[in-house]
Description:
The structure holds two protein chains of two kinds. By secondary structure, chain A is mostly helical. In chain A, 58% of the residues lie in helices and 4% in strands. Chain A has one domain. The longest helix of chain A has 28 residues, at 2-29. Chain B is 48% helix and 1% strand. Chain B is built from 15 helices and two strands. In chain B, helix 14 (361-385) runs antiparallel to helix 15.
Amino acid sequence: MNEALSRKKDEEISDYLLEQFLNLSRALTGFDRVDLLGTGMAEPYYREITRIYKEPVIRLLFEAKAIFEVYGEHHPAFEDQIRQRIIEDIEFAQIAKNIIQLWYLGSYTNYNDPAPLIFKAAYIISPEAYQNGLLWPNMGSHPAGAKQPGFGSWNLEPQTVKQD
Amino acid sequence: MLTSKPKNKIKRMLPGDEPEEAPKLRRGARAAIAESLPSALPQPKWVRLIREDVERLPEEARVKNIKQLRKLLRRAILIEHTTIPPYLCALYSLQEGTNQESAEVIKSVLVEEMLHWILAANVLNAIGGEPCVNEPRFIPSYPSNLLDLLNTKTDTGVTSLKELLKVDALSASNGKQSNGSTDAIEVGLLRFSEEAIDTFLEIETPVPVGGESSGNPTIGTFYKILIHGLETLEAEAHAKGKTIFTKDPERRKRQITPEHYYGSGGKAVVVTDLHTARKALKEIIFQGEGFDPRFFEKDISIGDYDEIGHFYRFNQIKQGRYYEEGDTPETGPRGATLRVDWDEVYQMKPNPTLKDYRHDPDLRAKGKAFNQGYMNLLDKMQKAFTGQPDALQEAVVYMFELKYLAGELLKNPIGAGELAAGPIFGYLGKTK
């Protein structure tokens, strides 16, 4: 009984943190929640990033939450706050960079590696992560070798479904 | 028969020309003549069986003229169209990497329904009809009642197909009430589930052994009436040295050819005469809803065929087994296990509407984007059916786009609930 209760509590906490992760991701990527969830990658990315960085991720999420609560996303200072307190922060910079990189490319780079950037240890976390990179819809394309757009589509003008 | 007008005389002497005036005969007499004359081609066994079946139905169930036949074919296009979104929803809702065998089964049926859609349009174009797929009244809405779709009331001027069959059923069972007859077979957009598969089985219900007499009309019955009409009208026209098939070269360019559609569920059949029309319609009823064991020369064993009817394919999912050699409709599938994980499915809300997404503007926008893609697809299909068959290739591009959009919708929960969003397949006005 107690075990079930604590499991339920754990689930609630992780749901809550995942929600904060989605909010932060929205601010960092510029894509909306529906797009992010639509990739099906929110949970795997959150798990990967906490596996690598552990507690600092939780601190980062609460920092982001504070910015959301004090400023709200439509406040003119919102983006500056995200930049100053997260992207340019010594502790959070790396994590934020990797969150953006995960969403766009599905890849993780170890920025602590002393090698020059292109030789730093890096990997794509899963085949799904590669296929669901936001890079592809952003450039109106599809990941090479996956999500094929249909025979002869290269012969047609780019088709974008308009969203209002 | 010659008239005294010299103008007509000259005209009729041109090769391939048709007499202008039809001999004025009473309907009964005309039919009698048509029956007595040999038709353009010898009738294959399945055509003979279909004709016999329809001739057992009341007179009202038969197609009287070309206008009615065109209307029926337009309805056939709508019926084929209607089956596609439900199958797509079931397929899309399977979580990636799970239920692969079921996915293969659904996909195999799906591509054939798409082929049927195109074949029905080819036949309609061949007899001078106007296909229409992108106007609201020719776009399915969900949930819809399959029996309403099959109800040929507006088409042949009869009360309803169901009523007619009831009469047939009563006479066949000597006044005993037929069982298994319902007022509605609801076809909706459902996630992959036992309920969805049950609906698919109802859609694809084969013609019961012993004819139409077990209650509900099936799509097979609908096609039988259509085929009977086509055969009769062409035989009548043939008797007068005419044909119901268009000779207009512009019209003939409307045909979707194997060059435009191939590889998925079979080849497109170019329809120019009775022979090719039979070929196209045979493809539809043999693969799909009209599957009738009597059409085959030998005793049927389902497992013997490379390609089994849609009903039997879906039944494999329901029973969790494949058919093997020696299996019959009565034995059911007795072959290898087909693994089904009913839980590895996105929990899509049944028959979602844009209204369900109103609380979330971004989700609503995504839902609308899907509908927009669907409209674009239908506009291209319409183009393809009315003179620009090349547009089919563009339609395929939209199909892929819809697949990815549906995937995104299905991964989004609706509000804080347990249910997920899903594709709506709703009308959204014309594009451009």
